[in-house]
Amino acid sequence: MTGTDRISLALCWLFAIACVIFLMLPIVITLAASFTSSAVYTLPPPELSLRWYQSLQQRSGLWDAVKLSLNLAVVSTLLSLILGTLAAIAVTRGSFRGREAIATFTVSPLMMPGLVVGVALLQFFREIGLRDAYTSLLLGHIVITLPFVMRTLLASMAAFNFSLVDAARTLGLSYPRAILQVLVPNLAPAYLTGGLFAFLASMDNYPISIFLTDARNKTLPIKMLQYLEEQPDPSLAAMSSGLILLACVVLIIASRTVGLNRMIQG
Amino acid sequence: MIRRAERIGFLALPGLSFLAIIYALPLFMLLLKSFQIDGQFSILEYVTFFSDNYSMSVLWRTLRVAFLTTGLALLIAYPTAIIMARAKGIWLSVFLVAMVLPMSVGVIVKAFAWSILFRTRGVLNDTLMSLGLTEAPIRMLFTETALIIGAANVFLPFMVLPIYTVLRQMDSRLPEATVSLGATPVFRFMNVTLPLSLPGVVAGCAFTFSLAISMYVIPSLIVGERQQTLSMLTARSFLYLRNEALGATISSILLIIAISVVLGSSWLASRLGARQ
Description:
Order of helices and strands of chain A: HHHHHHHHHHHHH
Largest sheet of chain A: none
Strand content of chain B: under 5%
Number of helices of chain A: 13
Transmembrane segments (chain B): 12-32, 58-78, 90-118, 138-167, 200-224, 245-269
Helix content of chain A: over 70%
Oligomer: heterodimer
Mean pLDDT of chain B: 85
Number of strands of chain A: 0
Domain ABC transmembrane type-1 (chain B): 59-263
Mean pLDDT of chain A: 87
Family (chain B): Belongs to the binding-protein-dependent transport system permease family. CysTW subfamily.
Number of domains of chain B: 2
InterPro entries (chain B): MetI-like, MetI-like_sf
Membrane topology (chain B): Multi-pass membrane protein
C-alpha cells in the first residue's frame, strides 16, 4: 500500500462511520424522545418515564388504525406473493417475446410517484363506481407490494435450477404441486425477503392510502400524521418506537433465516 | 417442450392484467385527462402551469431539491460502499444493520425524528450552542437545507446498496493486478473501480432521484406548507382546493419526469452493460 492509498482509505472509513451514525440518528432520537417525562421534546429526556406509552391507550382510533394497517399489509402481501410467483415463473421460463418489458413493467411501480398513483386510482375508482374504502385500499396496496415481491422473485428464479421441478413432475407430481413442494421451499429466502419488504412498504404507505380512505377506514400512517397536526406530544415518539420495534423483530427473523447480506442482494 | 414454454406465458396473465387495470390504465387516464378540457383536446392547463411564476418556482424547487438530495446521498454513499465491499465479519454486520434497519423503519418515523432534531430548541441547536459554534439558535426547521439533509438520510440506503452490490461482485484482484502492472492509485480508481461501479451509481441515482422528486411526507413534516413541492401542490389541489384540473396537470408532469428517469436510466444501464 502506498501513502495515497492509506490516506484515501482512511478518508473512506471516516465517511463510512459518519454514514452509519447519520443513518442511525433518527432511530436513536425517536427512542430517546419516547421515554421522556416532559410534555415537550427535550433531549436528553429530563427524567425517564413510560407515561407517553401509557397515554397511547387514550388515543382514539389508534388501535383500529393499527388493525387496518396490519390487515392490509398481510392480505396484500399474500396476494402479491401468489400473483408474483405466477408472473415470475412465466417471465423466467416462458419463451414469448417481451419478457424483459414485462419484468420492467411489474417492477416499475417502485419508481412511480406514489401520490400520482393515488390520485389516478382515486379518479379511476370513482369512474367505475367503486365506493368501498377497504377494497380500494387493498387494490392500491397490492400495487405497492407486488413490485417488491417481483423484484426478489425474478432475481432468485433466474438463478433457480428448474430441472428440479421437471424431476418432480416425472416422479408424478402435478405442475402446481411441483411448484408448491419444490420451487417455493427452495426459494424460501426470496419469499421471506420480498414478503417482508412488501409488508413494511404497505405498513408505511401514506401517499396512495390518503386518496383512498374514508372517515372510518384510516390506516396507521394517516392517523399518525393526523395526530401530528392535532396534538403533537411525545406520544407520537412512543408510536414511532413501536414501529421501530416491529422493524427490529422483522429484521431479527430475516437475519436468522436468510442472512442480512442475502436479504439486500435478493 | 416448446408448447409448454409457450403455455407457461399464461401464468403471467393474472398479475399482468391486475397491474394493467389497477395501475397502468388509471395512470393513462390521468394523463389523458390532463390534456382535455370539457372533453376536447387542449394543452391550456399546461400553458397556464408553465406561464405561472408561482408554479414554475415550485417546479424548480422540486427539481433542485431532488438533484441536491441525490448529490448529497451519492457523496456519502460512494465511500461507504467502497468500505462496505471490503468489510468482513462484525464490521460488515454493522454496515448491513445500519442500511437495512433504517430502510425497514419507514419514512414517517424518520421524517418525524428529523422534525424533532431541526426544531429551534432542538438537539442540533443545543449541541451547536454548547459547543460555542453559535450564540443564538439557528432556524433550521422549514428550510430547504433541512429538507435536503432529511431526504438524503431517508434515501441513503437506496444509494449505497446498488453501488455496494456492484463493488462486491467486482473481482477484488482486479485493482491489485493493475498495481502490479505499475498503475498509480488515482489511475487505478479512475480506470478500473469507477467504470466498473457506474451501473450501480446509475441505478442508485435514478432510484434516489425518482423518490426525491415525488416525496410527500418528508417535505410536509420538515418544511411544511410555506415551501411547496410538486407533490404537496398535487395533494393540496385534490384534497383542499378541489381543483382537479390543476392536480391532474401537476401529477402528469411528475409522472412524465418519473417515466423519463426510468427509461433514461435503463437506457444508460444497458449502454454501460454493453460497453463492458
